[in-house]
Amino acid sequence: MTLAEAAEATGGRVLGDTSVTFERISPVHDAGPRDLAMLVDRRYATDLPGCGGRALLVSEALCGIEDGPADRVVVADPHAALADLLPLLHPDPPRDRGVHSSAVVDPSVVVPGRASVGPHAVVCSGVTLGEGVRIGANCFVGEGVAIGAETVLYPNCTLYAGSVLGDRVVVHAGSSIGVDGFGYVTSGGEHRKVPQVGGCVVEDDVEIGANCAIDRGSIGRTVIGAGSKLDNLVHIGHNVTIGPRSMLVAQVGVAGSTRTGAGVGMGGQAGISGHLRIGARAQIAAQAGVIGDVGPGQVVSGYPARDHRTYLRAMASLMKLPELVRRMGRLERRLDGRDGA
Amino acid sequence: MTLAEAAEATGGRVLGDTSVTFERISPVHDAGPRDLAMLVDRRYATDLPGCGGRALLVSEALCGIEDGPADRVVVADPHAALADLLPLLHPDPPRDRGVHSSAVVDPSVVVPGRASVGPHAVVCSGVTLGEGVRIGANCFVGEGVAIGAETVLYPNCTLYAGSVLGDRVVVHAGSSIGVDGFGYVTSGGEHRKVPQVGGCVVEDDVEIGANCAIDRGSIGRTVIGAGSKLDNLVHIGHNVTIGPRSMLVAQVGVAGSTRTGAGVGMGGQAGISGHLRIGARAQIAAQAGVIGDVGPGQVVSGYPARDHRTYLRAMASLMKLPELVRRMGRLERRLDGRDGA
Amino acid sequence: MTLAEAAEATGGRVLGDTSVTFERISPVHDAGPRDLAMLVDRRYATDLPGCGGRALLVSEALCGIEDGPADRVVVADPHAALADLLPLLHPDPPRDRGVHSSAVVDPSVVVPGRASVGPHAVVCSGVTLGEGVRIGANCFVGEGVAIGAETVLYPNCTLYAGSVLGDRVVVHAGSSIGVDGFGYVTSGGEHRKVPQVGGCVVEDDVEIGANCAIDRGSIGRTVIGAGSKLDNLVHIGHNVTIGPRSMLVAQVGVAGSTRTGAGVGMGGQAGISGHLRIGARAQIAAQAGVIGDVGPGQVVSGYPARDHRTYLRAMASLMKLPELVRRMGRLERRLDGRDGA
To answer: Looking at beta carbons, which residues of chain B come within 8 Å of C335?
Structure first.
């Protein structure tokens, strides 16, 4: 691809030679002579002097930066440009079609023409598969599961009986969906299981990372709203509703029956207690522990989670607390001294 | 099922028409005309005006609540009633028996008459299987593993060689049991592995969530005590003993050689350091980080974990700390002013 | 094995009868009459009076301790001695060789003579396998993956296409390697996926625990440095570099593009934000939440993470804060009283 073509595909412009070509995009510190080096952020500018890339992908704000390749593609947002260019540089490989001979597919299941079922996958009775569905090797798709068009399961996933996945859903390797929730009735110290008979619905355009665990409802349903993205190792408890277009970073946990609004963000390792309501566009900082409702647009952090700025300010003053204790002692002694005088 | 039958099964009573029937139980906000709507808690009472359920399952405390269906089953504890009613409404489906033709079972293994081994499961030599055991698709059961009667493995689980599971154990999808512990000897910055040759014992009536990882002992054993319940994505280190009838919520981690008493509770994402003792019935709050022993019945939270109430009180006063710093400055200036006067 | 032989293998010495024999090594509280009981630490000395072991493995510092077996092997470091003795007591079982008849291996793949591919494993086209590689049951090895000599995959692992594993790597059950990173461009509240086309490199002698998730680079590479050890349920984001010989305890999460130096330690459940640099030999305490760069050799804890001692001191004084607020009020009243006088 030439720099001219890259500029056209991204709505950007070229500084230098428009006919320069590249084969792939690499970070500045890792770029070779056939690469377009991408400068993500000013803090990586220190890597520029040693950059071996043929040309530089850079934002308007940083386009005049001194070091690094002189031939440049200048764009409004390098990340958006990356999303534009990568599909052109790395077109999807041709897909297998059909059912691998080692897969075990119940005879009642209709596999559409462009769909595929990988080696050693198991597809149980009553399953419905949309056009273009791809089921990875060693996946288990339980009885009565419904999977929408163009949805992809990477290898070693388990869909419990009755789970419902929308169109264009992506589930990464090792994830378990529609798992029994953690529901027991305790009496006399013994825990009796409450049967988990509810549903688990993953709406259109959701992407779920590797090794996640998403519970079915106990009664009622667990719902992951359309367009939401879950990173790796995320836990979603029973009867939870995650609103549409939310972002849950790795190792987040959401406990049972909590409902979140649209466009909520949760940083890595954040935890939300059960039976809460989290308003639309709320931001839960990494590692926050939320034990009360959060309003729309609120930004919270810490345990128990509070307003993010208030929390950070309090933690900063906490570091001065030992000094404050000393100052308090001095004040008391001064006052004692005067009173004694 | 009629309301009269439901009342009888739960030891409750009917308000209104005892002959009203329902087919399933649903949360108030999700109930349709064939459903018994279940009101879990007063905070969901706001969903009652729009409730489409045919009747209401409700506690004695809330039985007179205004909105929602007038025909009601009133019980002491709705959750316990749920555990009574669901098995009647959703009887277990008939189970497959026998060994699927695609499973690989060592010829030395005896599969009891009511047991089942799913598609593509692998059962190695020396494995013993109790009556009624069900091994899910794509599970791996290593050499010499012993599995008690009526135990269920959901798909894609791995039991390392020598693991021992009791009767009526349930292991959800993707969990790994009997994994090598994290044991190394470091010298000169290099980490040399200490062979992990100990056992891993999961006692009767334990339930283990999806995508958990439970280590074997290095020497000695890791033990999950009878009747304990582990949620999803829980980590248990080597040589740990979890006492009987404990509850470990999702994403809990317990480091090596820690021993906990009976009936301990751990909230989501709590972590316990290694080589500690946690007393019976202790409660470790969600996200707590425990780095010292905890006495029987103690309730702790925070990092480092302390008495729960003390911690919450301290965190509340922390939020006033910036204001306290200002008050301190004012006091010092007043005293300086007087001393100067 | 006799105590004399054990002393010779560990560079230790015998107290008592050198001809005493044992068959295995056990913790003090669990040792039987054929066992060498191992006393790890003074805090387990309380188990000594009831110890049923035939002899005791103990450090120089504790060798004179009163209770427990009188015949003793005394060593500088019992853990190092354990690493010396266990391979002698528990030699590796003979390994299967060759490809199991149920495995699906692309015809283009060359399987070396001492390598093995387990039941129901899937090995795609373009994969290269080193001598002695062992691929566990139900593993999926994607297109073009390269695996070095003597590397072991336990069952149910997934290696995404193009992943590169060095020599003597160990990957425990259920782990996913080379997963798509969490990369989206958001506009108008919609999240558009940035294709994840980078590499994932796991260098020589790395061990990865069960149910981990390691992302590939978006562009560029994710690298786990040689000799590093990851415990269970660890998450590594895209474009991360983990320096060589590091130790990441269970449930750690490292967000995208962070680079860590050699010999870094991270305690259980610690989290590191994206785009940071962590210096060589830094120690991140359990549950720490790191949101800024950490210098070489620094020890940090808490959220946001700070110097470990400063943080612990601050948390200790925090517990006295409610009392401090009361003292402040008393001081203000005294001063008010005097000013009013």
So the answer is: 331, 334-335
